[in-house]
Amino acid sequence: MSLDLPAGESTRMSPTSTRLYSAWWRSYDWLLLLAAGALSLGGAVVVWSASLADMAVSAGDPLYYLKRHLLNLVIGVALGLVASRIAYPQLRAYTPVLYGISVLGLVAVLLVGTSIAGAKAWIKLPGGFTIQPSEFAKVAIILALAFILGEKRNEQDEPRGGDVVLGLFVAAIPVVLVLLQNDTGTVLVMGTIIIAMVAVSGAPSRWVVGLFAAAVIGGFIAFRFLLKDYQILRLTSFLNPETSAQGGGFNVAQARIAIGNGGLAGQGLFRGEQTQGNFVPVNESDFVVSVVGEELGFVGMMVLILLLAIVLWRGVMIALRASDLYGRLVATGVVAWIAFQAFENLGMNVGIMPVTGVPLPFVSYGGTSMFASWIAIGLLQNVYLRSQE
Fold first, then answer.
1. What's the CA gap between 354 and 234, in Å, rounded?
2. Measured distance CA(304)–CA(310) in Å, rounded
3. Residue 253 to residue 58: CA distance in whole angstroms
4. How confident is the model at residue 244 (pLDDT cuts 50, 70, 90)?
5. Domain locations in the chain?
C-alpha cells in the first residue's frame, strides 16, 4: 500500500503535513534506530553463544535461542513502529485504557503467575511462551505520569500539587503490585522513572526531595521487615564479594572471572571457557554481559557501552527538543528507564551493584523485555517526529 497522498487530497493538508506523511520513514532518528538495532542483533549472537552450553534448555536445537531472540526482535520492532505512529491526541486518549490493562496484567500475575528465581512475575502462555506484565507496566507509568503532569492548567509554569499527588498515586499502584511479586529490580527501575519525570515536570523541588526520602525510608522498611533472607543476601553480596562467593555472590564471582578472562580482544565467539563451560548461571539474560566480556573482551565491552550511550544521548536530545511538556516527560521517562536498567545490569556483572535480576535492554534474552524496550524506542521516535512538525 502506497504511503503517498492521493492527488485529490493534496489540497486538504498543509505542506508540512504532506511532507511528513509521504516520507515519514525519512524523518526518524536513524542514529537511535541503528544503535538500538545493533544492540539487539549483537545480543542475538551473544545469547546464541551462551545457550550452546546448555543444550537441554534449548531442547537439543543449537539455534533455539537465536531463533526465539530474533522472533522477539521482529515483534518488538513492529510494536515500536506502532508506538511511533500514534498521534499525540490518540496516545493521550488511550493512556487510561493501557494503564488499566497493565494493572490487570499485574493482578493476574499474583493470581495465576509462575515463580522464577523467587519472583512471581511471569504468566505462562501456550506454546512454551511466557509474558512478564511488569515490563509493560513501565510503559504504562510513563504514559500515565506524562498524561497527568504534562497537562498544565491556566497557563501555570508547574503542575499543581493535586496533579503531582494524583500522578504519584496512579504510579504507586503498579509499583506496589510489582513489589508483591518480589521483583525488587523492577521496583527500582519504576522508582527511578517516577522521580525523573516529577523532577522534569517542573514540580517544586520539595516533591523530588520528598520522593528521595520516601524511597530511602521505604527501602529500609523493605530491607528490615519485608525481604526474605535470600533476597537480602543477593542485594548485599556485592559489598563483600569474596566472603559471599559461595552464596549469594556466586553468580557475580563467576561473571567477574569470565569478564577477566576476556582480556583486550576476548577469547572469541563460542570459545569462552566460562561461557561454554556453563559456569555463569543465567548468562543468556541477567549475566549476558559476562559473555560479551569473555568472548569479545574489553573491545566488545566498549562497543556495547558506546551503543548504549548513543541510545541515551539521542533520548536526552529528543527530550530537550520536544515540542511540549508531554513529549519531554515521555522521553525523560524512557531515558531514565534505560539508563538505570543498563547501569544496574552492567554494575551487577562487575560486582559494583546489587544483584536484582533486571535484564540489559535490547541485549538480554527475554521476549517481554525486548517488546517493552522497542516500544520505548517507538515512544522516543514519536516525540522526535512531533518535534519535526
1. 7
2. 10
3. 25
4. low
5. 30-388
